[in-house]
Amino acid sequence: MPRPFELEYRVFEDAAALSHAAAQHFVDCAKAAVAQRGKARVAISGGSTPKSTFALLADPAQPYRAQMPWEKLEIYWVDERCVPPEDADSNYRMTRKTLLDKVPIPASQVFRMEGERDPEEAAARYESVIRGQFRLEGAQGPVFDMLALGMGDDGHTASLFPHTEAIHELGRIVVANHVPQKQTWRITLTWPVIVEARDLFFLIAGKDKADPLQRVLEGPYDPETLPSQLIQPRSGKLLMLLDKTAAANLPAPGPDGVGKMEIAR
């Protein structure tokens, strides 16, 4: 059943400004989690906007690197393509080359999805890893301190694509998802896990996202066609960091660049 939540969207002039805002948000969330719980368990996504954000976080010339509690982070992935870790399409490879190889995160605190394995096996193994790290039993699911999502121009998020089986999964933490429209398999966290994150936010940039974003937020509830509509945070609050072109069809934000909506379907 859909649940109401409060959406805050922050609109930035361009993709560069958005990446800086995202980098600062990563730092703020990580520091808050470490202060409260002694560590920050972070689930990240691939894509061009996260890549730019990771580059900023790793850059010693930027303020973010010195602020981040690197040794207290645990890094997980929201989803992965079914390719080896050195493949150009690998989300892990992008993150490693852009961020992980350049900052002092202990290797033992980085938990990748094994995209080179059989998809079902890789999903089962990753669920086992998460259960072990979070010390979960039975039907209990993980609560990530921070979880970053993107959104495709088809309304998908994570690897929850329109009209695919993973949309309907309620009991698993991680699943293999066949994506016929891309003729491929993906590995993804399930949406019931995603919505439990303490700090859940989207990074969305580009004019090709303006129409689907408007339909996700203001259109009829149809998660089979627009899986991003499944992301209704348990906390009751969702943040979207947007560039101007992605936000073009939404109500104009205030003078501070911040807009708010009550989403109740």
UniProtKB/TrEMBL annotation:
UniProt cross-references to SUPFAM superfamilies, sorted A to Z: NagB/RpiA/CoA transferase-like
A molecular-function term among this protein's GO annotations: 6-phosphogluconolactonase activity
Pfam families noted in UniProt: Glucosamine_iso
Gene Ontology annotations of biological process type: carbohydrate metabolic process; pentose-phosphate shunt
EC id: 3.1.1.31
Residue ranges occupied by any Glucosamine/galactosamine-6-phosphate isomerase domain in the UniProt entry: 13-239
Catalysed reactions, as listed in the record: 6-phospho-D-glucono-1,5-lactone + H2O = 6-phospho-D-gluconate + H(+)
Domain of life: Bacteria
UniProt pathway: Carbohydrate degradation; pentose phosphate pathway; D-ribulose 5-phosphate from D-glucose 6-phosphate (oxidative stage): step 2/3
Root EC class: hydrolase
Alphabetical keyword list: Hydrolase
Classification via PANTHER family: 6-PHOSPHOGLUCONOLACTONASE (PTHR11054:SF0)
Function: Hydrolysis of 6-phosphogluconolactone to 6-phosphogluconate.
UniProt record similarity statement: Belongs to the glucosamine/galactosamine-6-phosphate isomerase family. 6-phosphogluconolactonase subfamily.
UniProt protein name: 6-phosphogluconolactonase
UniProt organism field: Acidobacterium capsulatum (strain ATCC 51196 / DSM 11244 / BCRC 80197 / JCM 7670 / NBRC 15755 / NCIMB 13165 / 161)
